[in-house]
Amino acid sequence: MDKAAIADRPVSPSLNRLWLPGALCLLLLGLVTVSLSLGKYPVSVYEILLFFRQQVTGAAALGPERYDLLRNILWEIRAPRIAAAVLIGAALSTSGAAFQSMFINPLVSPGLLGVLPGASFGAALGMLLSRGWFGVQFCCFAGGLLAVGIAIGIARLYRGDRLLMLILGGIISGSLFTSLLSIVKYLADPYDTLPAIVYWLMGGLSMTDSHTVLWISIPVLSGIAGLLLMARYLNVLSMGDEEARSLGVNVSLIRFWLIFFATVISALTVVVGGLIGWVGLIIPHIGRMLVGPDNRTLLPVSALLGALYLVLVDDVSRLLLDIEIPLGIITALIGIPFFILVLKNARKGWG
Amino acid sequence: MAGYLTNSMGRALWCMMLVTLIATGAGAREIVDMTGRRIDVPEPLQRVYVASPPESYLACAIDPSLLVGLTLPLPQRYRRYLPEAMTGLPVVGGFFGVGNAPNLEALVKTRPQLVICWQKTAVSERFDKFLRQFGIPVAHMTLQRLQDYPRDIRGMGRILGRPQRAEQLAAYAEKTLGEILPRVASMPASERVRVYYAEGADGLSTDGRGTWHAELIDLAGGLNVHKGEKDDLFGMEKISLEQVLLYRPEVILVHDPVFFRKIFLSPRWRNVPAVKNRRVYLIPRIPFNWFDRPPSFMRLLGLQWVAQVLYPRHFNIDMPREMREFYRLFLRVHLSDEDIRLILESREVPEHG
């Protein structure tokens, strides 16, 4: 499929714009359905069908206890988790793709401006101070925003190449929050808080309940929508500031909103799933290989690919061993070799 | 030892050691540590540092006035459940694989006459070498299996030069183990209760059958539902909620108060038998956890608590009475009825948030 897609690109981009996202949507729907039937607790596909028939028509085919158990497993345990994987995968990939275009750099990931270290630090601090879960989530989100705010602030201190200054600001802010995180880990009670922080940083979706997912889906989906709507400007920005200005685009304003949306949704992914790395870096590359650099197609395709990828990885994390493998570990293990392979081809998409 | 003395620096240090020994005046006493090493410690021994929390707590139970410092900050809220001499100690830091390592210079500044540390890890060997340069002898001591506690408590007492006090504590340990273990052994396998040990804020980290961290479940005759493949210092395996459902635990012992507050509210756990029958218990944690993390001498009380929780019919333990005796003996504090209620409910966590 990739070869055909790449060959098609220059000839009929409009065709790609329509059928590929559509196909990916269907694929995602299929994967979500399959994932819903996968899990440690054995539930047959036949039973799931009976369950859904009972939910829709009300015809009691299952015993009340079995029905309740299935509802518990399917709707309260598996579904929120799969939904969280979809949201996080889409959010990280979209913001990664947007950042790569905006910074005109294929090595950029959503964590460029320090949002991930910031959010991790916030979460760790939250665990150290309060032990209430809402407090942790709030600190996590605030930490992410704060880190990006500092990065932008540093970039503003000096004149010169805006993008370069932003990247440097991000590096500084990210390192700052990484060391702050180390301090928190050092201070944390090694028997209670430290293990909690360590597991959080490995990333995972075992905590997700339907309440959190519903609550978080609104800002995440709005943020993704915001980025998708700005795709046209992103195309202009990726030609460089000068070009963009000459076309009458308010570069700083557009850039601010892009960073804002990407930061909010990336921070929210940490709130739900901890640190899940590499998704925002490699998925946009795959998207670019499939549909080329036009952000109007690239962003939605990346979002769908990211969702697909993370649902798949989470299935592996749930099923592969008797114990759960933290999600962040798998995404990194798959991501790194893949990235090395992709790196060679990545330049083509930018040509 | 000889290896260090081959150069001139070694000789200089040797002189320093001699000076230290002479300076402390009085004689020396030979002790044998857990690894069988013979070590000369100054007599009378007055300044000791214990590098890991469980062993440090035991030393405090024996005689807090001997310690130069603590490994971890004490939980401030529980001050009144700790021996007074202990709450005034400065925090020097400690070794336990991760987290705050002591500043070695700060440690030397406290002028310990003896340092007791965990057996052999890469870190502890470096620690060892460093302290020997200052003529500070290092003894190794590891508390591990609860059945060995009588022996280990006596060993600690001998090292610290407080054999009588240690004997009292060891006798309590022996009595407790002697009351619980034979009764567990006589219980038919069919009556064993299936237990899940929930750790972490999501309750989905656990330590399985046969591991050191969840030892009390095995000792109290529970059947730990998780087989447990990881028995290292750190422990904690991540498992999925569906796996817990499959395990069908009849009792859940909860380590984390945050999770304990959530388990009955979250719809996700409602089909786990222990939750359905409301047999979920928060492990008491004042002033230190009774069960694990840190695995301290509090586990002697914890063993009785777990046995009572799992088999209320077999074990008719009067917990308040046991608690009074235990806290008086080990921690030298008197518990009021209100204290006992607080400790059993572990209500120390503020309700907000």
From TrEMBL, chain A:
Keywords from the named record: Cell membrane, Membrane, Transmembrane, Transmembrane helix, Transport
Entries under Pfam families matching the protein: FecCD
TM annotation in the entry: 18-38, 82-104, 110-129, 136-158, 164-184, 212-234, 254-283, 295-313, 325-343
GO biological process terms, semicolon-separated: siderophore-iron import into cell
Bilayer topology: Multi-pass membrane protein
The keyword Transmembrane is assigned to this record: yes
Similarity field: Belongs to the binding-protein-dependent transport system permease family. FecCD subfamily.
Name recorded for this polypeptide: ABC transporter permease
Taxonomic path: Bacteria, Pseudomonadati, Thermodesulfobacteriota, Desulfuromonadia, Desulfuromonadales
